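Continuing the series of single-chain predictions for the mutant panel. This is the parent chain; the variants come on the following pages.
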Amino acid sequence: MLPRLFDLDKKTMKLASTNIEHPGGSWNLVVETNRIFHRCLSPGPSLEKMERIALSRLLCYFEELGSRTDATTLDLFAWLRSVMTVASTEAIYGPENPFSKRPELEQAFWDWEHDLTRLLLVSAPSLFARKGYLARSKFINAMIDYLEWRGHEYASDLTKARYKVGIAYGLSVPEIARFEIGSIMGVLVNSTPTLFWLLLHIYSDPQLLADIRVELSLGTTKIFKAASGRMQCTVDVPNLRQRLPLLASTYQETLRFHTHNSSSRIVTQDTVLMKRYRLKTGSVILMPGATIHALPSVWGEDAHQFKPRRFLKSTQDADRAKIHPGAFRSFGGGVSLCPGRHFATTEICAATAMFVSRFEMVAVDPKGVVVDWQIPAMEGGRITSSIPLPKGDVEVRVSVRKDMRDWEWEFGFKEELAA
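Parent structure:
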């Protein structure tokens, strides 16, 4: 599968598969790369640096949107896809980010992601999955240029470490560039649709929107700056989930409700489950997240409904107060637990906190007439994404909230909040 997805050559595939089950120790290209992801994306200085860069870039987009005199009509998912693509990749690749230097790469990446199934299945992808095939080549060539120009030397610790381990295993620059597709895929394919669904659920529920705004008014820092005569509002990034429990619960429920991923495991010895099911050594077990997330025995009889307060401790039923953590499959589990979950959660929740605080948003039809919110159907058939994309456009009109046009906004981290 990897050669078709990333256009890897035989040498790289041999390195990726050699010693994958560790009979000769833990050395393996894929294993060491995965270890780098977990190390660099765990809470600490490396992760915080990435969060700062991503949120700083998102703030620029929010500032531009907030500076417009009139309300703005836009396709919500398309706009979010654009801003999240640049902000997230800049956090990874730094000031020489190819997605900032070459705006056409955004569409190229999503064209490649859309055609992944064809790239895997058809015998002549250059003919029958041409858009994705050409898009992949465009991305790879851009990454080759980035690496040859030494852009990685000014990038995140994650990118520096991935480059270093690639060189250590004897990969060439073009081979490292191909491997980078996997990194981008992990960052973008789920965070963008998650932010989309989260905002949609909040704004389509007037009571939820009002309650989260009350929470935000108490959970953000506001200071009147005499010099400018303006109010400054700071979103407290390190304590988002603690200070904004309803927003955090709505985020978790968005993941639970929309997750369509599957985890897989290989049976290492004959096992009998529940005295009924015999699993033979070598068998592959698939655990569908959507099925687990819809089990009434785990989540209650309302498992098929979107309940934004489901994860609030104060509202959990006594019988479900200690739901097994393995029942929440949005980030996988065990050795395949998503290493980017901390980065994604901070980026999505912080962006949502500022957007909901600053902007009004209503649904409109193609003629610009305000209409009732409709939750669109979810697009299927995407093999890499755990969170499905919306099927069709969702047109919205966005405007700055009353009396907030002259406010100053920022994302605050520990140092800023202590000042």
